[in-house]
Amino acid sequence: MKRILILLYCLLPILLYGQSTLSALDNMHQVARGETWEIIAYDHGVSVAELQAANPDVFGKKLKKGSWLIIPKASQPANSQDSLPSSSSPKPTPNLSPARTSIPNLKVGILLPFADGKMVEFYRGLLMAADSIRKDAKVNLDIHAWDCGTSVSQIEALLSQLSGLDIIFGPASSSQMPIVAENCREQGTRLVLPFWNGQASLDYPLVYSATAPIGVFFDTAVKKMLSFFSNRNYVIVHTGNSDDRAATLCESLSKELSLRSVLPRKLELEGDEFAYETAFNQFRENMIVLDDSNIRSLNILLSHLKDFRQKHPEYRLSLIGFPEWQNETQWLLPDLYAFDSYIISPYYYNVLDERTKSFQRAYEKCFHTPIGHNNPRQAAYGFDLGCYFLSGISSLGDTFEQNQGNVPQEPYQSPFRFERSATGMSFTNRFVQFIHYTPEGSIELIR
Known about the structure:
Blueprint: H1 2-23, E1 27-30, H2 37-44, H3 48-53, E2 68-71, E3 105-112, H4 117-137, E4 140-147, H5 152-156, E5 167-169, H6 177-187, E6 190-193, E7 207-209, H7 214-228, E8 233-238, H8 244-259, E9 265-268, H9 273-279, E10 286-290, H10 295-311, E11 317-321, H11 329-338, E12 341-345, H12 354-367, H13 378-396, H14 400-403, E13 418-420, E14 427-429, E15 433-437, E16 443-446
């Protein structure tokens, strides 16, 4: 007992000091994999200098997952009653490098499998964006491109060449992505994934997935749809050959409606007139969703809807469509107008717009070949993505993550709205719009 008392007596000053110090701090933070000084400081509302000064034993070393950092209180006026006492004030850290608020000399890497014509077109659009930014923003862009193929061995052979870059676009292969992402984590390089829509990138805080996973995309779309189009009668049409994309939309819709204590009506595609009349509501607008995105199923549905409308013109019918329907608008356009249709899509390419025509002419002049006709247009996608990141990072520097919502956008096809799923996780493009084909024969974008 005597030994315990002596030990407590010796430890008392230390315990009191620790209590005093911790009372002057907001909390402690355990470092997650991939977190940087900038990310942690931003998430806790303090400056990088304050955070590093509060952790002089850690500053200058590589942050390790699982280690603990002291989170100081944010700077306050000197006469504030809540100011830290001088005995517990953070020690000044000399020669702290301030965050770059711009990067006029941007080093860019591009990793694509150039045997794929789609990737070549995307790359050309990216080069056009770089040329535009060089001229308009007076930014020096040092661009390095590699044909990375699709195999793991091909990307591993290139890793030694990827140091010192500010940003990398690519790769396209799902097997290569984790390797490049890990390399970018070590280098502190931003990684933009134009064609990846999987979940494996979620724990990489400087990774940007430009294509959202199907579940994320349709979940975002359904929430937006129900906020725009409330008090509608939603009808899910079962085709018997549902595909994953359409099934995901229908599942998200059913889930969100159930949270509102509403159930969607169900209708068999080949049902009779009575089945259609039972599913539809005469007094509310009917929003019709297929569980198959295939054009063949759509054509069968359109045939039934035309017959139904002839007999029941008083019913208001609207179609909810999928991005790939845009590939068929030259044939579908009259029906899309007739049934007041809304296509859910992250992109829209208006071939009739004069600005778009000018872009196409510039592409053909540079590369002596026309832009492909499939949606999305890869050249426009490359241009839009390049402009967003190259102009944003060159102008905002290390503050890009906090201020990217202020990056101006004038896309030809693809707007971007990147959001983190959680602190320390990667960014995903959650932009969703509805392309509305009105009964008056016009097209409007609802964003």
